[in-house]
């Protein structure tokens, strides 16, 4: 059954051969049903002619956007799509100061999640290079839909990574969920990039005398969430350390990194730090504006008021 477009929470598109420097069109208005059918057709006609630039992000539906991207043009996809768990992105979540947490998170209905997943994953498969990889984060609730979709589309699973974080919701009648799944997948297992000494040489040892590289290459990653006290934030975001690890192991400087569900812009920001090209898509206007401000100003965090300074990209010495 076809989905109604206004229920989808995607983000974006791009074309590396383009010279277009247009900032953004409100494609979001189409998906929200604000414009008429005639206006929708006119906007789609304009979209067909547009080619989007690298090192920019776009406030648009990624499923629609990726249809206009050239095949085999992206080196790496890192994304955290909606989980279909009826997540309530309220300002008071996790005891955070409400005025600093942006609202607007859109979820996908569980009954539509399988079809939705196949749509956006098919777009990623088309634009991804044979030498490229994709990392998809997921909760456990609808993981089966993602696994079925990647098999049906023709992706190859390289690793099933577990990201263990330091805080989960306390439960009375079940175990605390304190991890996410991260699927490392590719189109061609023989051609995909992987640099196993990107973070540690074989000779580097842990305090106990073990191999630091071996430990870092294990498929359970204990990485803390980030809490931006006193700064603007979206309800969910991947820690920079997590994104950095993925980019260093599976991409090179100058590679194109895409995030179809950009959120706060974390993947694009870390890609910029590591001298990768970036492109991303976010359908929620408030999130898009926040991500764009971070990229345009070259800052990692943005103060919610005048009491705390921005942390700029150059402060992240380890990412230079």
Please tally the helical runs, counting DSSP H or I stretches of 4 or more residues: 9
Shape: globular
Largest sheet geometry: 8 strands, mixed
Beta-strand portion reads 15-25%
Sequence of secondary-structure elements: HHEHEHEHEEHEHEHEHEE
The CATH topology, please? Rossmann fold
Account of the 3D structure:
The protein contains nine helices and ten strands. It has 320 residues and is of the alpha/beta class. An eight-stranded mixed β-sheet has the order 1-8-7-2-3-5-4-6, with helices on both faces. A two-stranded antiparallel ribbon has the order 9-10. Helix 4 (113-127) links the parallel strand 2 (74-79) and strand 3.
Descriptors for this entry?
320 residues; alpha/beta; Rossmann fold; eight-stranded mixed sheet; two-stranded antiparallel sheet; 9 helices; 27% helix; 17% strand; globular
Record the SSE blueprint.
Elements: H1 28-31, H2 37-49, E1 56-58, H3 62-66, E2 74-79, H4 113-127, E3 128-138, H5 143-153, E4 156-164, E5 179-186, H6 212-217, E6 220-222, H7 240-250, E7 256-259, H8 266-273, E8 277-281, H9 285-297, E9 299-301, E10 311-312
Helix pairs in contact: 4-5, 7-8
């Amino acid at each position: 059954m076809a989905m109604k477009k206004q229920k989808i929470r995607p983000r974006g598109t791009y074309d590396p051969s383009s010279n277009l420097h247009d900032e953004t069109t409100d494609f979001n208005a189409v998906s929200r049903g604000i414009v008429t059918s005639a206006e929708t057709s006119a906007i789609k006609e304009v979209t067909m002619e547009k080619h989007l630039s690298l090192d920019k992000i776009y406030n648009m539906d990624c499923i629609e956007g990726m249809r206009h991207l050239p095949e085999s043009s992206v080196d790496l996809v890192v994304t955290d799509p909606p989980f279909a768990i009826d997540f309530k992105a309220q300002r008071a979540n996790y005891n955070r100061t409400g005025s600093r947490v942006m609202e607007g998170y859109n979820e996908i209905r569980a009954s539509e999640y399988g079809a939705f997943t196949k749509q956006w994953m098919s777009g990623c498969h088309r634009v991804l290079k044979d030498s490229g990889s994709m990392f998809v984060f997921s909760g456990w609730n609808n993981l089966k839909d993602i696994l079925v979709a990647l098999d049906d589309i023709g992706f190859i699973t390289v690793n099933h990574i577990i990201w263990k974080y330091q805080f989960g919701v306390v439960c009375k009648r079940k175990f605390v969920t304190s991890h996410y799944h991260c699927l490392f997948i590719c189109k061609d297992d023989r051609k995909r990039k992987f640099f196993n000494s990107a973070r540690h040489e074989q000779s580097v040892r842990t305090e106990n005398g073990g191999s630091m590289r071996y430990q870092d290459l294990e498929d359970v990653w204990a990485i803390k969430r980030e809490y931006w006290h006193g700064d603007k934030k979206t309800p969910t975001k991947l820690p920079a350390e997590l994104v950095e690890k993925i980019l260093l192991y599976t991409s090179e400087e100058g590679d194109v990194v895409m995030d179809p569900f950009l959120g706060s812009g974390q993947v694009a920001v870390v890609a910029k730090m590591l001298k990768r090209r970036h492109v991303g898509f976010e359908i929620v206007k408030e999130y898009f504006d926040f991500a764009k401000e971070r990229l345009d100003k070259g800052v990692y965090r943005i103060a919610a008021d005048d009491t705390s300074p921005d942390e700029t990209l150059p402060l992240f010495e380890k990412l230079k």
